[in-house]
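Reply to thread "Modeling small-molecule complexes from scratch"

Following up on the discussion above, here's a worked example others can learn from. I took a protein sequence and the SMILES for flavin mononucleotide and predicted the complex. Inputs first:
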Amino acid sequence: MGSALREDPRGSVPQEVPPLKRLVVGITGATGSIYGIRLLEILRGQADVQTHLVISAPGKRTIVEETAFTVRDVEALAAHHYDIRDIGASIASGSFRTAGMVIAPCSIKTAGAIASCHTDSLIARAADVTLKEGRPLIMLLRETPLHIGHLKCMVALAEMGAVLLPPMPAFYNRPKDLDDIVNHTIARVLDRLNLPQTLVAEWQGTARRVSAGGRSQPHPALVRATRDPRAARAGLRGRVRRRRQP
Ligand SMILES: Cc1cc2nc3c(=O)[nH]c(=O)nc-3n(C[C@H](O)[C@H](O)[C@H](O)COP(=O)(O)O)c2cc1C
């Protein structure tokens, strides 16, 4: 009484509800493979989350071109990883219960495949399964500029229930480096999945932040970009006039 049901190989006995939150992670060939890698790094530290990773062939290429990681390093961050062609993998079936899927980054090609239910790769199939089972599908769609075909694809995906979360940097938190920018987006992904994160504190309002002395120094590149032209003309290089908060 009350004991969990055991999995039987013939599938005639229902499986127990998994105690772990299984999360499917897809990495495609859009630029920004570091987003998927950072997500895996963070989730690796969460004992109750089990990651199931699929990397497309172009995704493997961008990992090598854009980061110091090897594909093997990235695969080792996940609890399980699958070949993109393995459309018979567990995550290709809705009966394999997961807490959702994140595609980080998501190319337009993969977004188009999912929007048109063209599920001939394991990423597209797992995403389609995630949507049909009513589970969260978070897509860090990355392309710019966007033509009308991209926009129509995004509308179709939103109508199907996907969460479109393009990796767009925010500057209100005064990012100091690329890590801050990547972490900010990944924090939003984890928030959307109701998973804990300590990467980014929740916004408490501008006035509270200033009175608490919570202002960090902006990155020098941002200082340069926002330098008061009058001060620059006066030769006050590096001295920045405080901007009023909006
Ligand atoms: C370095 C590099 C950066 C790329 N960046 C993007 C991008 O930001 N967005 C995009 O949709 N495709 C981008 N591509 C093209 C995709 O990799 C290509 O369309 C590929 O077919 C996507 O396949 P996949 O979705 O199966 O990974 C990039 C390719 C390379 C080599």
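What I'd highlight from this example: Confidence is low (pLDDT under 50) at residues 1-7, 231-246. Residues 28-31, 56, 58-59, 61-62, 65, 107-110, 142-143 surround flavin mononucleotide (CB under 6 Å). Questions welcome below.
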